Amino acid sequence: MTFGLPVDPAVLVVAALLVAGVLSAAFAARVRLPGLLLFLALGMLIGDDGLKLVSLSDPSVAQTAGVLALLVILFEGGLTTKPGDLRRAAAAGLGLATVGVVLTAAVVAGGVLLLTDLGGTTALLIGAVVSSTDAAAVFTVLRRSPLPPKIKSLLEVESGANDPMAILLTIGILEAASGDPTLAEWLRFGALQLGGGLLVGALVGTSGAWLLRRVELGASGLYPVLALGVAGVAYGTAAAAGASGFLAVYVCGLIVGARVPRHRRGIRTFHEGLANIAEIGLFLLLGLLVFPSSLPTVGLTAMGVTAVLVLVARPFAVHATMAWPWLVRRDWNMRELGLVSWAGLRGAVPIVLATFPLTAQYPEGGEVFDIVFFVVLVSTAVQGSTIGLVARRLGLREGASIWAPIAETLPLEGVDVDLLEVDVTDQLHIAGRRLRDVPLPAGGLLTAVVRDGRTLVPTGDTLLLPGDRALVASPRHPRSSAQIVAWARGELPEPAEPF
Q: pLDDT tens for residues 168-206?
C-alpha cells in the first residue's frame, strides 16, 4: 500500500533544482565565473531541448515568474543602497537610466540594420530590449567586485531605475508595429511610467517605513514579512495606476532601507536570501525557455549585436550622457567612465523583455528572443567575469565609504532602550580619538567595543580605532539613531545635546 500527493514530484524537482542552483553558485565563486551563467546553462540542460526533465513551453509563465523575481531583486537592491552614495550618483544614474537607455537602443538598432537583413521594426525592438542593464546581474556582481563606492552606487541606481524606459521603448515599438501611436501618447505613457513610479514608490515607501518604525509586532521575524508586503503594495499600486511598478519597488526599497534602522539587519538578511532564491529560479526558468539548438543559427548575428552593444553603444551612451557638467561636476574621470561602460551587464531584464514580442505574437519574436538570449550569455560570461580585472587594470580599487555609521539598531525587549552598533571607519570624527574626547549625547552609553574578534569594556581612555564596532545604548527615541550618527561624524553641537 502506498500513498502520495500530486504535488510530491514537483516538490522533489524544485528542491533538487534549488540545491543544484546553490551548489552552482558556490562552484562559480570558486572558478570566478558569474553564477547566473551557470543557472542559465542548468536550465537549458534540463529543458525541452536537453534532458527533457522539465518542460516550459509557455513564455507567459516565464514572463510572470520573471516579473515576480525581479520585484524581489529590485527591492533588495533598494534596501542595500546607501543613501549618501545614492545622493552622489542620483543625477548621473537617472541620466543613464533615461537618456542613456534611448541612446543605447538607437545605436544597437543602427548596428542591427548594418549587420543583418532584419527589418527596421525588428532592429528597433532588439535595441530596445537590450538597452537596459540588469539589476539581478549588476547587484550579484557588485557584491563580489572590488569597485569604488561611487561606481557601485551609479551602477545600482542605473540598473534599478532604467527598466521603465526599456519597457516604454519595447511596448511602444510593439504598439507601433500593430498600430500608430501619436507622439503625445508616447510622451504621456513615458511620463506616467517614470513620474508615477517615483511618486508611488516614495509614498508607499514613506508610509511603510513609518509602519516599520512605529508598529510593535512582537516577533522580530514579522518585520521582514511586513517589509515584503510593503514592496508588493508599491508594485501593485503603481501597476494599477499605469505607472512603473519596477521603479516604485526600487524607490520603496531605498526609503525603507534608509529610514528603518531598527530591525535593519533582519530585514536585509531575509530579503538577501529571498533575492538569491529569486535569481536562481529566474535564470533557471529563462534557461528552460530557450532551445539551445536554435542558438547556432543566430550566433553570428548575435555576436555582432553583442559587439555593437558592448564596444560601441554602451560607451557612447555613458560618455554622451555623463558629459553634461551638472552630471559630472568633475567627479568622474575617463578611467571611471571606462569602467562604468564595461560594467553595463545585461541579464534577466532583457530576456524577460524579449518574451514580450513572443506573447504579443510578433512575427519575428522567436528570432528576437534567441538573439537577445545569446547577447545576455556573452555579456554575462565576458563582462561579468572580467569586471574585477578591468577595475585593477584601470587602477580603480574599492575605497572606504561611510553613509550612516549605524550598522544596526537592536531593540531591547521590555525596556525603552535601543542598542546601536556603530562601525568605526577612517572618515569618522571619532576614529583615532579617546572616548573622553568625544562624549556621547546625554543618556547615551558606550557599553562595549568589538575589535579583532575580542570584546573590550571601554573607559574614558579607550581609543576608538578604524575597524572597531562600538555598541552604544541609548534611550528609545525617534532621533536616537540620528544623534548617534551625528556623534560619530562630529556634528553634535558643544556641549552635546541630550536625546
A: 888 888 888 877 777 788 788 878 888 899 999 999 999
Do 198 and 268 reside in the same domain of the chain? yes
pLDDT cut 70: percent of the chain above it: 85
Structural domain including 425 reads: 406-489
226 occurs within a structural domain = yes
Quickly count helices (H) and strands (E) in the chain: 21, 7
Hey, how many other C-beta atoms are within 10 angstroms of the C-beta on 27? 12
Q: How far apart are CA 238 and CA 486, in angstroms?
A: 36
Cell of 446: 558606550
**Residue with grid cell 511618486, as numbered in its chain:** 199
End-to-end C-alpha distance for the chain, whole angstroms: 69
Q: What is the mean pLDDT of the chain?
A: 80
The residue type of 483 is: Q
Contact criterion met (CB below 8 Å) for 192 and 248 = no
Q: How many domains does the chain have?
A: 2
Model confidence pLDDT, tens digit, residues 52-105 = 777 776 777 777 887 888 888 889 878 877 666 677 777 888 889 889 999 999
- Asked whether residue 399 is assigned to any structural domain, the reply reads no
Alpha helices by DSSP H, listed for 215-263, are 222-240, 245-259
Place of cell 524579449: 354
10 within some domain: no
Does 468 map to a domain?
Answer: yes
Which of the pair, 399 or 433, is modelled with greater confidence? 433
